[in-house]
Write a structure and sequence with these properties.
The chain is built from twelve helices and nine strands. It is α+β, with helices and mostly antiparallel strands.
Length: 296
């Protein structure tokens, strides 16, 4: 699929009249492999849009993901206006007419277009209009996946192509699961204090914790916390926290030039030897090897 040519044919109007890259970002060559199970990245861009700015598109045979960093955009879909506010992630099936406009100037967002044999399956999952919109918290796994994708170039190596497909798969699966949850019957409810503990670890992973401190903060016995947390997430609280810290360490290794000991401290592990040991336990490689292999 030649995304640039397809976009030029599908664009009904644009304001101002500009290059396709002003909406699509950097466009990558697409080499289709028959029966490939991988998602393919067609373009990626960090876009800073200012008034006047709009794109009306007939249809494209691909999906897009759009994360709004600042300002606000508008999606017009089947006479419905959807606000794309800061910290929201949009998944859109582009195989339908859609229009994008600025609502609050400047509108700063990350956008990527992708394709793959699996798109027909995901299209069949939409319960109604073919889009999903979710709000991301700081340091969320979805935001981390978007930032990792911004560092990779498709076609550079098979390893990078696999990582790209894995991250896109993570994003589309998460968006679709959040969308389908709204129509699904409720599962057994997670206790409020267990969800509060998970959010605490997700967003404040660099802080120091002890079971005694958590017991006082949440007002629940530490033994009950450990038991019920494991029942919900199949991990003890400390195992979950360590996994979260290593996930964020992976993110910082790929998106910063900080030294290994600095990244360890950034995720709450001051002892560098312990950080390296824990990182290897979760990923099978040392932090330095991880950085070198992923950025090849």
């Amino acid at each position: 699929m030649d995304l640039k040519t397809a976009f030029e044919h599908a664009a009904l109007s644009s304001s101002p009249s500009g290059r396709p890259e002003d909406f699509l970002g950097q466009i990558f060559p697409f080499l289709k492999e028959e029966a490939s199970p991988l998602f393919s990245l067609l373009s990626f861009g960090d876009i800073h849009a200012h008034f006047p700015w709009s794109y009306d598109v007939r249809s494209l045979d691909c999906f897009l993901l759009l994360f709004t960093r600042k300002g606000c955009g508008k999606l017009l879909l089947n006479s419905r206006v959807i606000s794309l506010e800061a910290d929201t992630l949009l998944l859109l099936d582009c195989g339908q007419r859609f229009r994008m406009d600025i609502a609050i100037d400047p509108w700063e967002y990350q956008i990527l277009f992708f394709t793959g044999e699996q798109l027909s399956y995901f299209r069949s999952l939409f319960p109604g209009e073919r889009y999903a919109l979710i709000t991301l918290s700081p340091y969320s796994n979805q935001l981390k996946a978007m930032e990792v994708l911004s560092t990779l170039v498709p076609g550079r190596s098979k390893a990078q192509d696999l990582i790209i497909s894995d991250r896109i798969g993570h994003l589309i699966t998460n968006c679709m699961s959040e969308l389908l949850k709204k129509d699904a019957p409720p599962i057994s409810e997670i206790p409020v204090y267990i969800e509060e503990l998970r959010l605490l670890f997700d967003e404040h992973f660099s802080d120091s914790y002890s079971l005694n401190m958590l017991e006082k903060q949440l007002g629940v016995s530490k033994y009950r916390l450990c038991r019920e947390f494991h029942e919900v997430y199949s991990l003890s609280p400390i195992q979950y926290l360590n996994r979260r810290r290593i996930e964020m360490a992976e993110h910082f290794l790929l998106t910063t030039d900080h030294k290994v000991h600095v990244i360890g401290a950034m995720v709450g592990i001051e002892n560098t030897n312990h950080f390296i040991t824990l990182f290897k336990k979760f990923t099978g490689t040392t932090p330095q090897e991880y950085r070198q292999n992923k950025l090849l």
